[in-house]
Every structure is written in C-alpha cells, then in structure tokens.
Design brief:
It comes from Aureimonas flava. InterPro entries: AAA+_ATPase (IPR003593), ABC_transporter-like_ATP-bd (IPR003439), ABC_transporter-like_CS (IPR017871), ABC_transporter_ATP-binding (IPR050763), P-loop_NTPase (IPR027417). It is a single chain. The chain has 10 helices and 14 strands. A hairpin with a 5-residue loop joins strand 1 and strand 2. The protein is of the alpha/beta class and about 325 residues long. Helix 3 runs parallel beside helix 5.
Length: about 325
C-alpha cells in the first residue's frame, strides 16, 4: 500500500479527508539474535476510526502496539501520532494514547476510584472528578467506585483497565484483546462501550482473536502475518471482494451422485445426498443461478428449498493466512 501522506502538510481544503491520527512508515523491528518481528509496516489510521488488527499468535500485533505506545523501540521507520514523532516528541505522543493491555494488571487493594484517578495523575494532569465520574458511568463502574479491585469479576477488572486508559483523555485508544476472558453478554456490552468511545471522538485500534468482534465493530480490517501487513481493507469491501456466497439446494429426493450434465457448475453433494451446494462470488464467470435452476429442472431434480449463505470474516481471514503463508 502507498505511504500515508505526511501530517505536516498545509491545512486540508474544505471537504478533504483529515490527516491520519496515526501514521506509520517503513516500520521494522529486529532483535540482536537476528529475529525480525516487524518488517516494513506502513499504515494510516483516520481520526474516529475503529480499526481491527487481526493475525495469528506471534504475527507481531503486540510488538506493533508496544512500539507505537513507546514501550519498545523501533529498529527502522517512523511513527507519528497526531502529527508528533513518537521518538522526538515522546511525552506529547504518549499523552495522546491510551493503552488497555491484554493482561489483567491492576492495583488489587486499591478502590476503582483511586486507581483510575491515580492513572490520570501519572500524566501530570490536575484532578478532574467530573471526568472520572463520566468514565465510570460510561463503563457501568459507578456503583463499584468504592470497591477494591480484588473483589471484582474478570469482566469488571477489564472495564477498570479501560477506565484507567481513558483517565487522561487520550485521542487514540489501543485495546489488546479487549474481551479476552469475558463472557458473551459482557463482550456485547463492551462492544457498545467501544462504539460510544468512537462517538465521543476517540480513535480505537483493537487486536482480537474473536473474529466476530472485528466483524461487529471495525470500519477497516488489517491482517498481519509474519511481521508484515498483508492486507488493509474496509470491512464491507473486503467481504464483498473476497467473501464467497453459497446457494444451498435442498432436494426432494436424495441423489447418489451429481449428474454429468451439471458438471460445469462444480456442485458439492452432501453425504446423505439431500443437498447440493453451489459456491459463487460477484467476480465469478461461472454459469449463473437462473441457468443452474433451469438445468436442474431439465435433469429431473426437484427442489424442496433454496437458501443462501455468505462467508464470514473468519472464513476470509483463514483463507488469507493460508494462501499467503
């Protein structure tokens, strides 16, 4: 993908897209043992975007986040947050970023209110009880404000981590596996929280191994494998471009085999012979569905029902990882 435009350019003309809040150019990371965990990463994230970074374990997701957040030093390349270089303007960029780590590391004996307030103070900001209250209410933690963290459930502890990350009013929030260990109901509640943050102007970048999380929330999806970004695409465009659709034909009478007259359609027959499946996509040059239904009728095959189903983002992700290995 092309390098993102520089953030120091002249003000954008009316109607033009705003400059990216996060700009990464030629970013690489190598260790002394020769391991290269990131290789020429180029990425631009727009203000107010929800961006999902997907990849198998060891792909480089956490290393990339750690570099942007100033925890790990890059070997090559440039990263800018809000127009500021993360190395030269460390304090400015770090103040613009909130990080919710995957691990549940909290001050177990502190109260929720105390630990969130303390996190704000670490950035040199004056106390702001009204802001802390707003965060705790948004995250359904207000009733737990005086509870010691060790008494909270895993889902509540993860909400506390988000509250800590938002305490200093960042413009970019990194969520590293935000719903790991959270039950389905709390996961859906967390999705609502993330949407609310975006509505408030916060740019959200999340890594996740729950594909439905990216499918539910993300505006764009990036896939990283072996330290390289192999694809960045708007979610709906990605699914339209790579997602396959299937026409499932339920038969009135079982078939022993697909008739030779239908070989051109490459139909799949279920084990019990009661279903035919026809896979197609928007760019396919294979025979159309109307013609297929006509040929089925001509072959004496009668249908009980016809349904369609489409690939999920998980199907697409697995396909990308396998084909680009």
């Amino acid at each position: 993908m092309p390098n993102p435009a520089t953030l120091s350019a002249a003000p954008a003309s009316p109607g033009a897209a705003p400059p990216p809040i996060l700009s990464i150019r030629g970013l690489s990371k190598s260790y002394r043992n020769g391991a290269r965990v990131l290789d020429d990463i180029n990425l631009a994230i727009a203000p107010g975007e929800i961006f999902a970074l997907l990849g198998p374990n060891g792909a480089g997701k956490t290393t990339l986040i750690s570099i942007v957040c100033g925890i790990v030093n890059p070997s090559e390349g440039e990263v800018r947050v809000g127009g500021h270089d993360i190395v030269r303007d460390y304090r400015k960029t770090r103040a613009l970023i909130g990080l919710v780590p995957q691990e549940l590391t909290t001050d177990a004996f502190e109260t929720v209110w105390a630990t969130v307030s303390f996190s704000r103070g670490l950035f040199g900001l004056p106390p702001n009880p009204a802001h802390i209250e707003t965060i705790l209410r948004q995250l359904s933690l207000w009733d737990k404000r005086d509870a010691r963290i060790l008494t909270l459930s895993g889902g509540m502890k993860r909400r506390v981590l988000i509250a800590k990350a938002l305490s200093h009013e960042p413009r970019v929030l990194f969520l590293d596996e935000p719903t790991a260990g959270v039950d389905v109901r709390l996961r859906q509640d967390m999705w609502q929280v993330v949407r609310g943050l975006r509505a408030g102007g916060v740019t959200v970048i999340l890594t996740t191994h729950y594909i439905e999380e990216a499918e539910e929330m993300a505006d764009r999806v990036g896939v990283i494998r072996g330290g390289r970004i192999v694809l960045v695409e708007e979610k709906t465009a990605l699914m339209r471009k790579l997602g396959r659709k299937e026409l499932v034909l339920s038969l009135q009478s079982p078939l022993g085999a697909v008739p030779p007259a239908l070989a051109a359609y490459d139909l799949s027959l279920s084990g019990d012979g009661t279903e035919l499946t026809y896979a197609y996509d928007s760019q396919s040059e294979r025979p159309g569905i109307s013609r297929l239904l006509e040929d089925l009728s001509a072959a004496g095959i009668r249908l009980r029902d016809v349904t369609t189903r489409q690939s999920t983002l998980e199907d697409i992700f697995v396909s990308l990882v396998e084909t680009r290995a």
